Amino acid sequence: MEKHRAKILVIDDDPDFVIAVTPILESALYDVVPASNPEEGKEKIFSEKPDLILLDIMMDSLFDGFSLCHAIKSSKDYKEFKDTPIIFVSAVKEMTGSRFQFNAQEQGMIGPDDYLDKPVKPGDLIARIEKLLKR
Amino acid sequence: MLEKKPVILVIDDEESMRDSCSQMLEKDGFLTDTAEDGSVGLEKIKEAKPDLVLIDLKMPGINGLVVLEKAKEIDSNIIVVVITGYATVESAVEAMKKGAYDFLPKPFTPDELRIIIRRGLERRKLILETESLRREKKLIEENFITMVSHQLRSPLVAILQYFEVILGGMAGEVQEKQKMMISRASARLEGLLNLINDWLDVARLNAGQIVDKLNPLSLKKVMKKLIEDMKPLIQDDNISLELGSCSGDDLVQGDKETLEQVFSNLITNAVRYNKPKGQILITIKEKKAFIAAEVKDTGIGIAKEHLPFIFDQFYRVKRGEDQKIKGTGLGLSIAKKIVEAHGGSIQVSSELGKGSIFTVLLPKAEKGNPHVLKFWDKKHLG
Prior knowledge:
The complex is a heterodimer of chains A (135) and B (382).
Chain A: E1 7-11, H1 15-27, E2 31-35, H2 38-48, E3 52-56, H3 64-74, E4 86-90, H4 94-106, E5 114-117, H5 122-134
Parallel strand pairs in A: 1-2, 1-3, 3-4, 4-5
Chain B: E1 7-11, H1 15-27, E2 31-35, H2 38-48, E3 52-56, H3 64-74, E4 79-84, H4 89-97, E5 102-105, H5 110-142, H6 144-167, H7 176-206, E6 215-218, H8 219-235, E7 240-247, E8 251-254, H9 256-272, E9 279-287, E10 290-297, H10 331-341, E11 345-351, E12 355-363
Parallel strand pairs in B: 1-2, 1-3, 3-4, 4-5, 7-9
Antiparallel strand pairs in B: 6-8, 9-10, 10-12, 11-12
Helix pairs in contact in B: 2-3, 6-7, 7-10, 8-9, 9-10
């Protein structure tokens, strides 16, 4: 009897982050699907139907993470996935980036379910994922 | 956005006019919409956001000139071409003054309409392109520090992430000695990250960005939150951290984020330079037009000769034996800049071997009148 393993989509343009975070997720028995840019991320949302998304904020442009998150949560195209939990992970420290983050939300964008600074602590990451998957 | 077919709205009370214009424009590959009077037209401008609108000046209901003005209020970049029934020069001039792009006297030929529309849409495209470039430039300027921060932090963060995984045993077994070395390497990198953060704060301060909005803020609340945050930090050394007497008002005119940074810095120092089982006492009291917040510790203290310099950038008190204490030498200078940007001041008194007292004076909140104060506004820096 095989238990369903939750599938996590990691959208990040830094290959080192993807390599480093993969064993953390695998150690907690999650399946990992990587995507190295927002476009690939979009495709994989449809083809892989992840249970949760780890999303980098700044990729090609300042707003990649925000716009993709907003699209998933609000656009008709992603209707099927609008309840998929999203965790932002960013190297821009919360304090340094918070004004910028706040602005994006002021502009009427829908934010993520959770936010983590890089580098992520393995235990913290797993705990937050478990909490969101339980919902 | 520019690939989209241009949308043209025709506002005219004459049905034949609306039909002939829209038929012709559709044939030319534009998307069209029509409105039989000004109020319907304005609704459609709000909803459909047309690129160009044709307005008949003489209509029942809202006057064409008023429609023109309102249309410009809705979208300042909208191209308006007015149609003047009885080709009076006055009304055309009046419309041009109010921001119409061009006018077309009735009757006109399809080609006359085409030429004006083509030119008008080109103008619209140019305006929108300039606008979006300007917006992009502004965005880059506004977020410059964030972008630099990202580029400086990313490589370090990637390395730290690898270390986390290795130390967590998720990349195979790690021997004690390897573990020790990687832990120490991590600590050094974290020190470097802190330095980058402090540097970026200095840059933000110099750019005058740090104190954007001042609002009434309860210092008591700020302190309570910080004391809660610091708990894990004081446990190891059995240091007590308490909020003591608070007399009178505690509302200051402040920016929450940066003031938290100031007091977090002062309390962290009080912990860092304290003795085992030491004490830290925070008090808040009214002092004329200011609120004074005091952070008092029973730590190692600061020698007299160093006191005048501790708020200087990169000034670090040299103490041979306790080299394990590492700071960036920027924390207090950042705190001072933030407090001064609030129109306040920061003072220190200290006795070597007994402890230090840092006092921050901040202007009281102005009831119901949040005002904006800029860092470079020197007259507030008293």
